[in-house]
């Protein structure tokens, strides 16, 4: 599975590891500072069993004596680089990706520094193993691969115990970032019930890997509401509640109890909702956004990273956001989430109302273009984008090609999971009206994408600006090579979370999200060379997260939403303030405390 969980109630206000040259001693006094020694009260076997403090064969001689480890370890003290080499050889010996994923889970429960450092050194190769698509296989097999419990399990039959169960994970100062799921709509594989705990864990691994969120200050949670997955209900090894999903009033009470308990117990924590089902994802986000710092990656993360790609594309085409026309094909959680981010950015930039801004976006779903006359067939998220029927009287709005002919969009986005929906006719029609069409087939996994970048490039004679939902190799046209950017949420959500955590934000506002998007778009390689990707590669993600976090923090300060004292105003100083508080996979000296 992707990764770890253990929880360590504070043994000191958490410190952490990072390469010393990144550190800024001015900020060494901060509670989340990563400079200097790490306070530790554990000794002997207890220390070796704790993945956060354990260094394995990396403990130096003086720490072995001081922490009663002599006789418990082989004599040769090894460097972290040597340990990484050995772990990588073990990883490579596993016969398939699921076995590699299981090996990584096991490593995470032994030594977190080694686990994260191994991934950092081999990020391109391991990303798909610790996250999608292999993590999907691990989640589907959760009850069969189960070895030890990781994370917090809350179930709908015990609403009265939610507060007490959550309270076991530390004090008010111990938790910065919570990821919670109800397991209903996981990574394109649907309802996985209690196995959803692994998506909460995997997302938190990405926050540490990509933005330096301290791994012992995070909490993965699954809300077990039952499951409608027949296979799981009939599996005697299934570990969750074996009953159909509970919905309605009891479900809402369960969510509310969780949110209120989490806020009371961990008042500084940012709450990240993940992979909730279509009827609930948007509704829950809308319910709590005005009250607490929270985020939904499927709604907002996908919207942010897509908008960043679009903004980079508009920069290349020299078109203003307020003059752009966009068609979104597939108007579920992701499609309407993208529409919302684009609408909010247009409104923020141009001073238009959100209603006016929404008129630049045409949303298409199963019945064709969304129209007002669809009435109660529209989800609440689709309603703002439904067009007046009078606009389309006598015009065909049932298929994508007809809509493209009429709208002449600059941007076409696919979130439909309908393979090959962007046909040669559709793309050629778009390219006939727009010099540099921006085409983003985002459906995952690869077999569900709306069009292959190779074909889009061919059909537009190399003019299209393309980003996809899965990784694709570069494409060529008449000897010229064009990079295909991946709209990977991991370039965006960790930095947003880092900014909210460090500034201790009261809320995450629309303007803070727009600031994050602009910071990501500013890192686009296409700004220097239009044949390069619209978005930066995930291998540069830690640096990108610094810029995003700074943008989020500056906007939070401007809106009066940051509660942390002493946030630097000057840009360079703010960057160093952020870097000093980002955990990194390096061993820190241990300082014995009672």
Automatic annotation (TrEMBL):
Catalytic activity, as annotated: (S)-malate + NAD(+) = pyruvate + CO2 + NADH; oxaloacetate + H(+) = pyruvate + CO2
Active site per the UniProt annotation: 131, 203
SUPFAM superfamilies tied to this protein: Aminoacid dehydrogenase-like, N-terminal domain, NAD(P)-binding Rossmann-fold domains
Domain Malic enzyme NAD-binding as annotated: residue spans: 299-557
Named cofactor requirement(s): Mn(2+); Mg(2+)
GO terms for MF: malate dehydrogenase (decarboxylating) (NAD+) activity; metal ion binding; NAD binding
Entry-linked SMART domains: malic, Malic_M
Pfam families assigned: malic (PF00390), Malic_M (PF03949)
Chain residue ranges for the region called Disordered: 1-28
Protein name: Malic enzyme
